[in-house]
């Protein structure tokens, strides 16, 4: 007799828990990609756990959510500085940037990265990843026992909330280059994407169609944010008293180039505004009603799982791409 296939909620949770465990191991070893991927995995779990565990009792869900949130925060500073170092490395490959000035900025970032890594490892030790594994396993067992589709209604509610937040953020940011307002768009976009992934992996085809558009917007604003972080380090070096290692002109060249690229990326984002507004609207008018109907059982949706039980998608599976 063939074993019973795992419930969709169990598969969605297990997939994200495995990704987190795999990437945290790389983060602890000092791998910059591992830090980034672990942080992305933790954010996906933060979005998934409260949705999938809707209505469950005795699964230790709240404890797991707290630990995941602390994990995300622990990884944040190191991830940001890793990206900054990669940007500086890329700039060093071009002859247009003064090498001495780049090295001065790099020295500041490296020092911060080492300090941040020490703090990260201490925080990870306090989080007790083995206990987080047990909490998530407890949630998974409860999900499998319940085998309920009630989570879809909570997902519909979140999608509605996230889409409204994205639309409001885009409207508030307008077309002018206002870094704080554009940053709010990036955060809203990211939250909608993680919720949309749950809908897509749960079988909603319209949700899957919207994901590439969300990803493009997130990549544009993620790159813009990374450059803005580097700008703060350049400005900090410029503001240091009694500097003797490099002339101010070299730092001004770097600062000017960063500002021009930020403006260019903002222009790219402005061209994407109609697409993002369309995504927010389609989420409210198409995806949310479909997810709600599935929750009420009017149009049951089956998750496309590999028949061999691995919980993997078929050949048309969504790729778990790195998200900023």
Topology:
Elements: H1 8-28, H2 32-52, H3 61-92, H4 99-127, H5 129-146, H6 151-173, H7 179-201, H8 205-238, H9 248-296
Q: What are the key terms here?
A:
single chain; about 325 residues; mainly alpha; about 75% helix; flat; disordered C terminus
Give a description of the structure.
This protein is mainly α and 324 residues long. It is built from 9 helices and no strands. α1 (8-28) runs antiparallel to α2. The longest helix is centred in the C-terminal third of the chain and has 49 residues, at 248-296. The chain is flat and about 65 Å long. Mean pLDDT is 86; it is low at 298-323.
Task: Produce a short descriptive summary.
This protein is mostly helical and 324 residues long. It is flat and about 65 Å long. The longest helix is centred in the C-terminal third of the chain and has 49 residues, at 248-296.
Q: What structural class do helix, strand and pairing data support?
A: mainly alpha
Broad shape: flat
Q: Give the count of helical stretches.
A: 9
**Oligomeric status of the shown chains?**
single chain
Q: Quick one: how many beta strands?
A: 0
Q: Overall mean pLDDT score?
A: 86
Q: Which regions are unreliable across 5 or more consecutive residues at pLDDT < 50?
A: 298-323
Task: Give the H and E element order.
Answer: HHHHHHHHH
| Main beta sheet strand tally, sense and closure | none
Q: How much is the radius of gyration in Å? A: 22 Å
Classify the helix fraction into a percent range: over 70%
Measured between the Cα atoms of the first and last residue, the distance is: 44 Å
Strand content: under 5%
């Amino acid at each position: 007799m063939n074993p019973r296939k795992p419930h969709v909620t169990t598969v969605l949770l297990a997939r994200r828990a495995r990704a987190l465990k795999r990437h945290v191991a790389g983060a602890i070893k000092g791998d910059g990609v591992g830090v980034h991927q672990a942080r992305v995995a933790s954010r996906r779990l933060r979005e998934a756990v409260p949705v999938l565990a809707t209505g469950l009792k005795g699964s230790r869900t709240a404890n797991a959510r707290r630990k995941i949130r602390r994990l995300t925060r622990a990884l944040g500073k190191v991830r940001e500085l890793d990206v900054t170092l990669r940007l500086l490395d890329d700039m060093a490959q071009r002859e247009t940037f003064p090498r001495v000035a780049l090295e001065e900025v790099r020295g500041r970032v490296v020092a911060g990265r080492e300090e941040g890594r020490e703090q990260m490892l201490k925080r990870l030790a306090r989080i007790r990843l083995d206990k987080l594994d047990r909490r998530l396993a407890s949630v998974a067992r409860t999900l499998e026992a319940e085998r309920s589709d009630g989570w879809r209604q909570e997902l519909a509610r979140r999608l509605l909330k996230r889409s409204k937040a994205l639309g409001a953020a885009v409207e508030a940011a307008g077309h002018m280059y206002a870094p704080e307002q554009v940053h709010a768009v990036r955060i809203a976009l990211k939250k909608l994407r993680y919720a949309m992934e749950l809908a897509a992996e749960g079988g909603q085809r319209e949700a899957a169609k919207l994901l590439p558009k969300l990803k493009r917007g997130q990549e544009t604003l993620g790159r813009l944010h990374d450059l803005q972080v580097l700008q703060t380090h350049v400005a900090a070096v410029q503001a240091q008293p009694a500097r003797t290692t490099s002339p101010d002109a070299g730092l001004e060249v770097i600062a000017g180039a960063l500002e021009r690229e930020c403006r260019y990326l903002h222009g790219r984002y402005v061209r994407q505004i109609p697409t993002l507004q369309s995504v927010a609207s389609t989420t409210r008018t198409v995806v949310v009603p479909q997810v709600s109907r599935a929750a009420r059982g009017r149009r049951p949706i089956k998750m496309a799982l590999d028949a061999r039980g691995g919980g993997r998608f078929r050949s048309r599976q969504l790729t778990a791409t790195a998200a900023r």
